[in-house]
TrEMBL record:
SUPFAM superfamilies: P-loop containing nucleoside triphosphate hydrolases (SSF52540). It comes from the Eukaryota. One of its GO terms (biological process) is defense response. The keyword Nuclease does not apply. Residues 70-224 form the AAA+ ATPase domain. Transmembrane segments: none annotated. GO terms for molecular function: ADP binding; ATP binding. Coiled coil: none annotated. This is AAA+ ATPase domain-containing protein. Keywords: ATP-binding, Leucine-rich repeat, Nucleotide-binding, Plant defense, Repeat. Gene3D superfamilies: Helical domain of apoptotic protease-activating factors (1.10.8.430), P-loop containing nucleotide triphosphate hydrolases (3.40.50.300), Winged helix-like DNA-binding domain superfamily/Winged helix DNA-binding domain (1.10.10.10).
Length: 371
């Protein structure tokens, strides 16, 4: 198992912290970064999802579309943090009638070779040659001889529709053979341009659903009345986004009234809301919730490991053993007198970040930055 790193455009608050925590220590201990290979880790998937009317309706609509022979492409759209990836993973887990379900993260920059390699891994295909055109031909041949569900997660830009699919090596389903496509995107226009026969919107949570999710993650059963009051105000600032709700709730769980008040005031009036790269108010609130979760990490090592993940490009796979090596080389825990001890400390930090919903489980024993 792996982890997905949930960080909405982190660079604006991460960059000033990197030099003090990372650059100087690297100069001192760089020689230790590449030691003996460590085994991969199996990590348990975190549970922080609650079904909503919108997600249930979207799920049912997608499942029906998968049964329709006339539907080749299904577009799932909605704002960042609304739960599109969680939804399509659930669909992939319950879809019937496919030889294999393949999920590939696309992101803002299309990397055809990376996508080809991921698909090949999922269908146990070893490429005979390494050129892009040959890889596409081999994938096309294999995928044309079965029935596959291909989930393209997080499309930012419009593709040249079927031509780009052909370049990758993805044949659309025809006469019961080939691939049905589910794509997720923040932009309705991407679904239109890709000529999706079925387009499904994932909407924000209703007020009651938002409160249920927040209460479940914040542990408010026996909370003080002043905390409950602040919690209700914070929920309004989360604007129904599951990502914002969960990260904020996990960050504030067990904290005192003053901490809750401080978090609410930051959500209501932070200068962070003026970041140009985050234009929509609901996206800004999801971003702010993540930032507050980071600030509430009491362990400096946890903060620094979080920053280490932020150094990687979007959706770049980060091996767990690499984080252990970097932590050892940077001497993040000065009481660790062996790499095995450092590895245990990193695993403890991983659990802490998962509990705060700053890391989520993914695939293949690696971290994948998800922006």
């Amino acid at each position: 198992m792996a982890l997905e790193f949930c960080l909405a455009t982190a660079s604006s608050f991460v960059a000033p912290l990197l030099a003090d925590y990372l650059v100087k220590p690297i100069e001192r201990r760089i020689r230790y970064l590449f030691r003996a290979k460590l085994p991969n880790l199996d990590l348990v998937t975190s549970k922080n999802h609650v079904d909503s009317k919108s997600s249930d309706a979207a799920f049912n609509k997608i499942m029906e579309a998968l049964k329709d022979d006339k539907v080749q492409k299904i577009g799932v759209w909605g704002m960042g943090g609304v739960g599109k990836t969680t939804l399509v993973k659930k669909v992939g887990g319950e879809a019937k009638g496919f030889d294999r379900v393949i999920m590939v993260t696309v992101s803002e920059t299309l990397d055809i070779e990376k996508m080809q390699n991921k698909i090949a891994d999922d269908i146990d295909l070893n490429f005979e040659k390494k050129t892009g055109e040959v890889k596409a031909a081999e994938l096309w041949s294999r995928l044309s001889n079965g029935k596959f569900l291909v989930i393209l997660d997080d499309l930012w830009n419009e593709w040249d529709d079927d031509e780009d699919l052909r370049k990758i090596g993805i044949p659309l389903v025809e006469n019961g053979k080939g691939c049905k496509i589910i794509l997720t995107t923040r932009n309705y226009s991407v679904c239109q341009h890709m000529e999706c026969e079925e387009i499904v919107q994932v909407k924000i949570l209703e007020d009651r659903e938002a409160w249920t999710l927040f209460e479940m993650n914040a542990g408010l059963k026996n909370a003080d009345s002043s905390v409950i009051g602040e919690a209700k105000k914070i929920i309004k600032e989360c604007k129904g986004l599951p990502l914002a709700i969960v990260t904020q709730a996990r960050a504030l769980k067990g904290k005192g009234p003053n901490t809750w008040k401080d978090a609410r005031e930051k959500l209501e009036g932070s200068e962070l809301m003026e970041i140009r790269s985050i234009q929509k108010k609901k996206d800004k609130n999801a971003y702010m919730s993540l930032k507050i979760s980071y600030e509430h990490l009491e362990d400096k090592m946890a903060q620094t490991c979080f920053l280490l993940c932020a150094l990687y490009p979007e959706d770049h796979s980060i091996n767990v053993e690499d984080l252990v090596r970097y932590a050892w080389g940077l001497n993040l825990y000065n009481k660790a007198n062996s790499i095995e001890k450092m590895r245990n400390e990193v695993l403890s930090v991983i659990d802490q970040l998962k509990d705060c919903c700053l890391l989520e489980d993914g695939d293949d024993g690696r971290y994948v930055p998800k922006l």
